[in-house]
Design brief:
By secondary structure, the protein is of the alpha+beta class. Helix content is 27%, strand content 26%. Helix 9 packs parallel to helix 20 (724-736), helix 11 runs antiparallel to helix 12 (457-469) and helix 15 packs across helix 17. Residues 312-738 form the Glycosyl hydrolase 94 catalytic domain.
Length: 816
């Protein structure tokens, strides 16, 4: 069952009924100001940090699920009938409804009783504000007398404090209304450096800033007292719950359309000595008023929206493909790339499943996200790498997460996820491969944001590798610490007495549990760092890292191979995990993918056997599950993984993030049909037809799909912010389609399904543009036989480098 359709030409997903199985969301903003918006206008906004600079309030886990957002009410002032063009929150019957989620904008339109309303939400480039452009059309034969009410509920900035510290916050809310602009200045008394504003382009009939006055006692957003009576109360909030609402009266002739613009924004006072004296409550509005006035003009809005579209044209223009599969084209050209950019901006911090409070930017997450967006914004990728590296500790260890506003590690999380440091090597390597910019390796970067501890980025990478080398267990495999990639596999938990509370080692980083996954990741990272060392003209370092990779490979083969697949780990007491010796959790996906990616077992048949085991034991119609068999009950020695019911999340769910590792591994082994088959199983566009089962958005990847042990096998959860986006983009573009940046240039090495006859692509790389055609006889399999570059025959798969600005025509021939 479908709830909408793709409009490929306009790069939009069109939702034609509001009651989607879950709220289907989109993101506003691409730089510093961001917002979440659902297909019924739910969501919230923030500046840079979803916890510390939250502009508007949102209540997670509510009933209904999606409550609170950017609400507009339309009222017929003759009959008293009022409704919401986004359906929520009044949920009034609509004559028609359409939501178009586009690239950093959403447009919601609806009609009722001869009145049509369309609202466009977007964040202009270079601004810290969002625009709501509302167009009201009278489709009746008679004049319509209407009222338009806007509404937002202000969050008192720190979202955690806002949701918990009521004894204080019910007395701190403050607003100021000047010339129709509502200024939210809670916290201004103590900080005096930032505020929010909410403005309207039309003369106001009234306003409200006190929630209980606007809504009325014992009422909700579905029936506000001000809207019901058709007149605002002109309330000014002093404490309690500040909101912003404008009341505009409109008289529309038959066929007439009126445009009303609302602007919600964030502003900071300039950092000078000319601040108002201590205790003053006067806002410095001089700088923000011209901005407000400019964006309330329809021509400015139109120009800003056009500029946003042009920006996405440039971002997506770096890679375009035309293949035999429309689902591949749709995801590669638009939606997968778009999701990669959103995960770049937000990591895992703010979605409808992450509240924006408990998590900031992930060290591991952000490094992996680089893989999917570096070709679109290499200059911002460089900045992100340096930000991430500056949170690394001098030991080479890493805070698992850091706050984007402060760029400081979250001390409550601390270190102990022992895979984290190695991801920095892989992120930096991806950047240098894409850009050829080796200067980043010499860039001075502090440890733990201490300016006195600066060292070249290359030294940070050295310490990342050393961190694993200095923490090996009895099987010569890396210690897992608190966990590795699988945050829920906590093998340093144990109990001496059944039924007793669990204990942990004094220092989980030094616990005895070992990870085969990290061992494979170490081999992968050591080889990448060896290549970077050669680029730095450090042959001694390169030899050292290759030797370390070889040594770890030996430990994996000796202690990590189980006979038909790679083991997952060893627990605190040295018992194998992910082994045929276990009654449950015998085989895990992660080491099969990572070890093969690292090149372990390619020459001796182990890699091919491990991938057959994945097909035989883990693959389902909805994707590859994380492990089998599922854990039926809680096992204290395994930690959180066994706390989930079978088939969900880390307990035998289809953790989509890991599926691309198997796609890449199959491509490495020249299995194009199987690699592409796995790609299609979790491709959101392919799953659109089963939206009533999948439930999440059909235009972006979800983190998890329920596995076969769950009663809801095939149901997705945790959409949008997931490493799945970047890794799937890498799997399809660099390995299946084979357009792969390397340190020495651009390689063209596709591994295609047998029934394909080829594909076409345009790829921007290091300033040049490559127009690529791949030709293959249907039914054949194999790799590229030779290239033809600008008419010249070239042996091998490496495309010769071209000067910036050049347009290079490349033909790859697969003879089978």
């Amino acid at each position: 069952m479908r709830y909408g359709h793709f409009d490929d030409e306009r790069r939009e997903y069109v939702i034609d009924r509001p009651d989607t199985p879950l709220p289907w969301i989109n993101y506003l903003g691409t730089e510093q100001y961001f917002g979440i918006v659902s297909n019924t206008a739910g969501g919230y906004s923030f500046y840079r940090d979803a916890r510390l600079r939250r502009l508007t309030r949102y209540r997670y886990n509510n009933v209904p699920f999606d409550v609170g957002g950017r609400y507009v009410y339309v009222r017929d002032d003759v009959t008293g009938d009022f409704w919401s063009p986004a359906w929520q929150p009044t949920r009034s019957p609509l004559d028609d409804y359409e939501c178009r989620h586009g690239l950093s904008y959403t447009r919601i339109a609806a009609a009722r009783n001869g009145i049509r309303a369309e609202t466009l939400f977007f964040v202009p480039l270079g601004e810290t504000l969002e625009v709501w452009r509302v167009r009201i059309t009278n489709e009746r034969d008679t004049t319509a007398e209407l009222s338009l009410f806007s509404s937002v509920e202000f969050c008192l900035w720190d979202a955690q404090d806002d949701a918990t510290n009521f004894q204080r916050n019910f007395s701190t809310g403050q607003v100021e209304v000047v010339d129709g602009v509502i200024y939210h200045k809670t916290e201004y008394r103590e900080r005096r450096d930032h505020f929010a504003y909410f403005a309207c382009s039309e003369p106001l009939a009234g306003f409200d800033t006190q929630r209980e006055t606007f809504l009325g006692a014992y009422r909700g957003w579905d029936r506000p007292a001000a809207v019901e009576r058709g007149a605002a109360f002109d309330s000014v909030a002093h404490g309690w719950a500040p909101i912003g609402s404008h009341h505009v009266r409109l008289g529309l002739a038959p066929g007439e359309t009126r445009e009303v613009v609302f602007v919600l924004g964030y502003a900071e006072n300039p950092r000078t000595d000319k601040f108002d004296p201590p205790g003053s409550q006067t806002l410095n509005k001089r700088n923000v008023r011209p901005v407000i006035e400019r964006w309330l003009r329809p021509e400015t809005v139109a120009g800003g929206f056009a500029a946003l579209g042009a920006s996405w044209d440039r971002l997506l223009g770096g890679l375009r493909v035309t293949t035999p599969d429309p689902h591949t084209d749709r995801m590669v050209n638009v939606w997968n790339a778009y999701q990669c950019m959103v995960t770049f901006n937000l990591s895992r911090s703010a979605s409808f499943y992450e509240s924006g409070i408990g998590r900031g930017m992930g060290f591991r997450d952000s490094n992996q996200d680089l893989l999917g967006f570096v070709h679109m914004i290499p200059e911002r990728a460089r900045e992100r790498i340096l930000d991430i590296a500056a949170t690394q500790m001098a030991t080479g260890g890493a805070y698992h997460q850091y706050q984007p506003l402060t760029k400081r590690g979250n001390d409550d999380i601390g270190a102990g996820f022992n895979d984290d440091p190695l991801w920095l090597v892989l992120g930096v390597s991806a950047y240098v491969k894409e850009t050829g910019d080796r200067t980043i390796l010499d860039e001075p970067v502090p440890f733990d944001n201490d300016p006195g501890s600066e060292a070249p980025l290359y030294e940070h990478l050295r310490r990342s590798l050393r961190y694993s080398q200095e923490r090996l267990g009895p099987h010569r495999l890396p210690l897992i610490g608190r966990a590795d990639w699988n945050d829920c596999l906590n093998l340093n938990c144990f109990s001496d007495t059944p039924g007793e509370p669990f204990q942990t080692t004094e220092n989980v980083s030094g616990g005895a549990a070992e990870s085969v996954f990290i061992a494979g990741q170490f081999v992968f990272a050591a080889k990448e760092l060896a290549a970077l060392a050669e680029l730095q003209r450090m042959p001694g370092d390169a030899a050292e890292y290759r030797a370390a990779a070889e040594k770890m490979t030996g430990a994996i083969v000796e202690h990590g191979w189980d006979g038909a697949w790679f083991r997952r780990a060893y627990d605190f007491r040295g018992h194998p995990i992910g082994s045929s010796e276990n009654d449950e959790g015998q085989i895990f996906i992660e080491p099969q993918g990572m070890c093969v990616l690292a090149g372990v077992g390619h020459g001796d048949g182990l890699a091919a056997r491990a991938l057959r085991s994945v097909t035989e034991r883990l693959a389902t119609a909805h994707g590859i599950v994380l492990q089998q068999p599922a854990y039926a009950g809680y096992r204290i020695e395994l930690g959180e993984i066994s706390s989930y019911p079978p088939g969900y999340k880390e307990n035998a769910g289809i953790f989509c993030h890991t599926n691309p590792w198997i796609m890449i591994a199959e491509a490495m082994m020249n299995n194009g049909d199987r690699a592409f088959d796995y790609y299609r199983r979790i491709n959101p566009s392919m799953r659109e037809a089963i939206s009533e089962l999948h439930r999440c958005e059909p235009y972006v990847y979800a983190q998890m799909i329920a596995g076969p042990d769950a009663p809801t096998h095939g149901e997705a959860k945790n959409s949008w912010l997931t490493g799945t986006a970047a890794w799937n983009f890498v799997a399809i573009t660099q390995w299946i389609l084979g357009i792969r940046p390397e340190l020495t240039g651009l390689r063209l090495d596709p591994v295609l399904p047998a029934d394909w006859t080829g594909f076409q692509a345009t790829r921007a790389f290091r300033g040049a543009t490559y127009e690529i055609t791949v030709r293959k006889v249907a039914g054949t399999v194999g790799r590229v036989s030779y290239l033809v570059v600008d008419g010249e025959h070239v042996d091998g798969t490496m495309v010769p480098s071209a000067a910036p600005g050049a347009v290079v025509r490349v033909e790859a021939v697969i003879e089978g």
